[in-house]
Description:
Blueprint: E1 2-9, E2 14-17, E3 20-21, H1 26-36, E4 41-44, H2 45-51, E5 60-63, E6 79-81, H3 84-91, E7 99-102, H4 106-114, E8 120-126, E9 134-135, E10 145-154, E11 157-165
Parallel strand pairs: 1-7, 1-8, 4-5, 4-7, 5-6
Antiparallel strand pairs: 2-3, 2-9, 8-11, 10-11
The chain binds NADP nicotinamide-adenine-dinucleotide phosphate (NAP).
NADP nicotinamide-adenine-dinucleotide phosphate binds near residues 15, 16, 66, 107 and 108.
Amino acid sequence: MKVSIIVAMDEKRGIGKNQDLLFKIPEDGKRVRETTNGHPLVMGRKTFESLGRLLPNRTHVVVTRDPQSLKNLSYQPHEIVSSVKEGVEVARKYPGSEEIFIFGGGQIYKESLEQGLVDRLYLTLVEGDYGADTFFPDYSDLGFKVIKEESHGLDGYQYRFVDLEK
Ligand SMILES: NC(=O)c1ccc[n+]([C@@H]2O[C@H](COP(=O)([O-])OP(=O)(O)OC[C@H]3O[C@@H](n4cnc5c(N)ncnc54)[C@H](OP(=O)(O)O)[C@@H]3O)[C@@H](O)[C@H]2O)c1
């Protein structure tokens, strides 16, 4: 079983602003859909709310200290847990758990990396500073090595898909 992070960030490691994404790059959206299809997703309550719906063919595991806060949403997660570690453990029993995705946001990325839960990073590195209020942690000294890198300049954005593994 592998635990992977998938994330798009700008050159300041910014990942979000006002509880939304910084950019909507169609090729990046396609990469996220294709890479995570059929696999469980573990995410923070704020990211789950910002999705606005369930993504098809994926188990949604949501981390929160207050399960009641999800009750008013029109869509519901498959599992509610009280820590990232518990989220990964619960995700193991669902289809596609040979690879479990940490799906954000900033708090959950940080905690999963600090706790050494992550084996692989799928990064989309976008040129420019988009004025984020939420950031991905510094991953440069965590022992990840680049295993694949592709450059793209599409849809008005310059970006690279970079995959790293421990
Ligand atoms: N660029 C990307 O690839 C990407 C991907 C995902 C998200 N994002 C962006 O990231 C932003 C959201 O990130 P965020 O950092 O604000 O929030 P988040 O990580 O999505 O969720 C934070 C929430 O998770 C729960 N939580 C965190 N640590 C916990 C712990 N140890 N135990 C129990 N519950 C815990 C808490 O929920 P409660 O408050 O309910 O207790 C906390 O408020 C948005 O702007 C979103 O668009 C970007």
